[in-house]
Structure prediction request, 245 residues.
Amino acid sequence: MATANSAVEIDVSNAATLIFQTVGTYTGALSIQGTVDGTNWITLGGADLIIRFTTGVKSASVASALQDIWGVDVSGLLKARVTALAAVTGNVTVAAQTSNTTMFVTTEGAVTINGTVPVSGSLTSAGTVTNTPAVPTTSNTNSAASTNATSVKASAGTVYNVTATNINAAIRYLKLYNKASAPTVGTDVPVLTIPIPATGSVNLPFGELGKRFATGIAFAITAAAADTDTTAVAASEIKVSIDYV
Prediction:
């Protein structure tokens, strides 16, 4: 490969990777070209095209005078060639072969998580993830003679379970709010209204992922279901338990 456009060509139709070696004393860069139709050759580019085996560094071409072993991802190509697009001074010998195993792992895109995932853990030196599940805090409330506007958590959180009991002969309503302070009952709009049966109880689990409250966790208890209702309940007739983190 001592002149411009001289090349070493190889069939890569059944290959994932082209591996080649450069030996000799030469000046001038080497490039990689590929073809799908077998006639028209395209110069491949990109900073991560070729990986140099001795350093693991990726580059767009083989820099002048380097002697090493190289790898190129050629998946989907019919043929590939190592070529001197400009004149090479001296002499470089290129030996090439193919491999059915890909050497390259590419990560495209990103996953964005809004909010907090309530799971903690650690990675051991052996590569094993030790998962430590979040331990919820429990809020217990015995109703006062009011609408019981209560702030459970003044920041974002997750509710895992709600249990409420009612000793009154009429149905009552537990209302959950996404708010960082106690709700203004009758004005703020609840994100969830839970009927508590007359002289009965209700248990509402939200599973392993829980129900997310992006601003805060708050609740109220009223005697009617409407979002605007402000009817107070009696003292000690309702008990509310909320498990959250």
Q: What stands out?
A: Residues 7-99 form one domain. DSSP finds no helices and 20 strands in the chain. The chain has a mean pLDDT of 88.
